[in-house]
């Protein structure tokens, strides 16, 4: 057990899917895994371990924001020996070419700041996805006929963003969407030599103002969950 995760040693699988929303973790575990056991409830953050096509998988919430995701990623890797971490998140589309409910595979992350900034200081570290996972996720998306895009995402510290000027600059530079965890997940994974990928479903559109409901964000991202599971075990 750690300060934030109540699982016993051995109760966390090497492959971990990480939605921000703990209730999305429960929904995904109940709908996609067999033999599910709840392995964490500390602070209301839910984690579940089960099997998918015979392979052990944990689905564990990250909470919202890079500070929270960093705590869980650190403990999952350092204390429970997680080796593959795949964020399964929602995001706001920033380009006309990216539609609501499309999937974005985060190849790299743009940030203003991130928790690891304190370690990197003057270094502009480039958080990027594990190439094997990225390649596998892209090929699974293609074979399933999903609308999937690969590219740069903005990992923001704020949901209610006052910097329209920065959004405009990122849009001109092809950044596909905004979310709040991937950059730090990639940095922590790099630090410990494990694999990470963020798979994101567009729940909002910054240009068309379309937006999914809270219930849809919790319970309707099945394509993304299946994509992440298939990618994890084919890469
Ligand atoms: O739906 P999740 O995975 O939480 O992801 C997005 O949704 C939250 C904001 O509503 C942030 O965590 C953001 O990254
Ligand atoms: O961070 C996020 C997540 C979903 N939608 C947004 O607009 N921003």
TrEMBL record:
CDD domains: PNP_EcPNPI-like (cd09006)
Pfam family, one: PNP_UDP_1
Keyword Transmembrane helix carried by entry: no
Stretches of the chain forming a coiled coil according to its record: none
Keywords assigned: Glycosyltransferase, Transferase
One GO CC term on file: cytosol
Catalytic activity: uridine + phosphate = alpha-D-ribose 1-phosphate + uracil; a purine 2'-deoxy-D-ribonucleoside + phosphate = a purine nucleobase + 2-deoxy-alpha-D-ribose 1-phosphate; a purine D-ribonucleoside + phosphate = a purine nucleobase + alpha-D-ribose 1-phosphate
Residue sites binding a purine D-ribonucleoside per the record: 4, 179-181, 203-204
Superkingdom of source: Bacteria
Gene Ontology biological process terms from the UniProt entry: purine nucleoside catabolic process
Nucleoside phosphorylase domain mapped to chain residues: 16-227
Subunit structure comment from the entry: Homohexamer; trimer of homodimers.
Record HAMAP family: Pur_nucleosid_phosp
Function: Catalyzes the reversible phosphorolytic breakdown of the N-glycosidic bond in the beta-(deoxy)ribonucleoside molecules, with the formation of the corresponding free purine bases and pentose-1-phosphate.
Similarity remark: Belongs to the PNP/UDP phosphorylase family.
Record's protein name: Purine nucleoside phosphorylase DeoD-type
Gene that specifies this protein: deoD
